[in-house]
Amino acid sequence: MALAALIMVLTPGPNMIYLVSRSIAQGRIAGLVSLAGTGVGFLLYMTMANLGLAVVFVVVPWLYVGFKAAGVAYLLHLAWKAIRPGGAGVFEARTLARDSAGRLFRMGLITNLLNPKAAVMYLALIPQFIDPHHDNAAVQGFTLGTIQIIVSMIVNALIVLTAGSIAGFLSARPAWTRWQRRITGSLLGLVALLLAREVPQAARP
User: Fold this and answer.
1) Which of 19, 96, 139, 180 has CB atoms 3.0–4.6 Å from 25's, for a disulfide?
2) What CA–CA distances, in Å, run from 12 to 6, 16, 75, 128, 129?
3) Buried b vs exposed e over 45-55: b needs ≥16 C-beta within 10 Å?
4) CB count, 10 Å around CB of 5?
């Protein structure tokens, strides 16, 4: 579970883009406040998933398939934004207005709640690690979710703390920036294609 969580958090997505943008534009403290908001978003996802939200997708299979298809489309959209001519990389500076700590926290929370990758993690990936024949499924779900949150928060905190240095390094090396965008876009596209193979499958009870 820890390895799966690490792979997911290292794949650029809405959370990483938002946290890096905030860290570069407003400083590390702003990035960490935003990260706290995303952490609460993970807690909400974990709680809802373990209280039976996933049952909805079993009862209404077309909703689950549609949700996964939307997630794949969103990842492809992010991949195209990174690869297209004139596209922006994750660590490229963006002009953002300075926001209060409360707004930073709320935006971090909202960004994570609307993040298809986070939803896929809790509604499609983590359930695959739960053994229905071993102990309480809800306890397993909360345990696995906690592992995912710890891994995600540590990695994202390191990204926030180093975002400015990485951005400065890349800004002085345009060729590296182009390759960073190509690699990011390619990884997003690969993840989208791998998830697309699972779209037709209905949720398992």
Assistant:
1) 96
2) 12, 6, 9, 23, 23
3) bbeebbeeebe
4) 21
Q: Which two tokens stand for residue 167?
A: 């951005």
Residue corresponding to tokens 């820890």: 2
**Closest C-alpha among 121, 140, 153, 116 to residue 40:** 153
Backbone Cα Rg of the chain: 17
Torsion, Cα of 10, 64, 74, 109 (10° steps): -60
Query: How does pLDDT run across 44-91, given as a tens digit for each residue?
Result: 888 888 776 556 656 666 766 776 677 677 667 767 776 776 655 555
pTM for this predicted structure: 0.67
The whole-angstrom separation of Cα 26 and Cα 24 is 6
Q: Closest Cα partner for 45 from 98, 80, 78, 8?
A: 8
Q: How would you class 175 by CB atoms within 10 Å of its CB: exposed for 0-12, middle for 13-18, buried for 19 or more? A: exposed
**pLDDT one-digit tens code per residue, 107-133:** 889 888 877 778 777 877 777 777 767
Phi, psi of 85 (to 5 degrees): -60, 130
